[in-house]
Amino acid sequence: MAKSDVKKVVLAYSGGLDTSIILKWLQTTYGCEVVTFTADLGQGEELEPARHKALLLGIKPENIFIEDLREEFVRDYVFPMFRANAVYEGQYLLGTSIARPLIGKKQIEIAEKVGADAVCHGATGKGNDQVRFELAYYALKPDVKVIAPWREWDLTSRTKLIEFAEQHQIPIAKDKRGEAPFSTDANLLHTSSEGKVLEDPSQDVPDYVYSRTVNPEDAPDRATFITVGFERGDAVAVDGVKLTPAALLARLNDLGRENGIGRLDLVENRYVGMKSRGMYETPGGTILLAAHRGIEQITLDRGAAHLKDELMPKYAELVYNGFWFAPEREMLQAAIDKSQEFVTGRVRLKLYKGNVSVVGRESPYSLYDQELVTFEEGAVAYDQHDAQGFIKLNALRLRTLGQRKKRMGK
How far apart are CA 371 and CA 245, in angstroms? Predict the structure, then answer.
């Protein structure tokens, strides 16, 4: 599709400098009508300025879409992912990754609604987000035209971006006139920071980069104890108070922030092939993961639990790489959701100076049998003499191998 064939495009619009420049660039380069979409994913920012800025840049009121997606985000994306205990490369809780398919889905829905023939995102040509957005677009609307300005334009430096903005009377915040110290992305699950002062992995993360957690050393000297209630694998209550998914995650975020929980300094392997260093703050998610594993400890059968742990890295990689709408992720999700049928109960946790620990768990579906594990006399469900035959059968092949080695003098 040629530039002249693009009549209307739906832009993922934050209201910030980069996407405002993209908005004007689309108008001047493609000569098309621009529809803006701004998602409230709990990033903690007022979104009305985005509407005002879009109007200022000539967008018709009927072409400005701002949606509160917090509940949908947590219910349909974050919670299914946490049922899998998904962690990328052993540490990253996928806060940015899991938000992109929802934004992409909404862009496609709006494109269908307004008759747009293209969608546009502000992700750079070096990062993962370009992949995540575009895989979502193509999965949901295979024939859609995708515009990725960072792969097309010649605005390759901050200076050129500023010059373009000034040329087109785009408002520039004062702190954007120089080199930004780092870039951030935020939603209800996490805040990520990368670039500039964080690019040297040998250097500590400066204190001013952290925005969502207190320094663990400055957290209260007394531990905080909480309980998290679960139903079929999803958290539904904190300290006995039932909450909606978004409200529950927000509550855990508050508790995590106060206790300095959820900081992560990580060098990760991007899908596009390079390593990058980022700083992540996921206070509520860190607590939620510990709690979910705690309730699974007593409600999941060993075979199911171990299979889940084998599947988890693949699931996490699919989310990280942008394959949320792929059949393999959906297949894994079906298996994971089946495992959660009896993952119901309460977990008690201790929060203290950056750490979260499970200190108690209970469930009406618990598989933990004290009669089986007790060291006291009187347990009749388990005969310790049975272990001898069990061990000998498991050792049979090892003994056979040992006998062959002995015959061969090895």
Answer: 37
239 is in an annotated binding site: no
In-domain check, residue 322: no
184 DSSP β-pair partners:
193
Residue 128 assigned ligand-binding role: yes
Whether residue 101 is found in the same domain as residue 204:
no
Last residue of a domain, one of 140, 164, 180: 180
In the chain (410 residues long), the average pLDDT of successive 10-residue segments reads: 86 94 96 97 91 95 98 98 98 98 98 97 95 98 97 89 92 62 91 93 95 97 98 98 98 98 98 96 98 98 98 98 98 98 98 98 95 70 88 96 91
Asked if 311 and 90 count as a contact pair (C-beta separation under 8 A), the reply is: no
Cβ within 8 Å of residue 60, ≥6 positions away: none
Domain match, 171 and 223 both:
no
Helices vs. strands in the chain: H and E counts, helices first: 13, 14
Name the residue range of residue 16's domain.
3-70+96-180
Binding residue per annotation — 218?
no
User: Where in the sequence numbering do the catalytic residues fall?
Assistant: 18, 100, 129, 183
Its pTM stands at 0.94
Q: Structure tokens of 356?
A: 């979260």
Residue 17 marked as a ligand binder: yes
Position 383 scores a pLDDT of 83
CB 70 within 8 A of CB 284: no
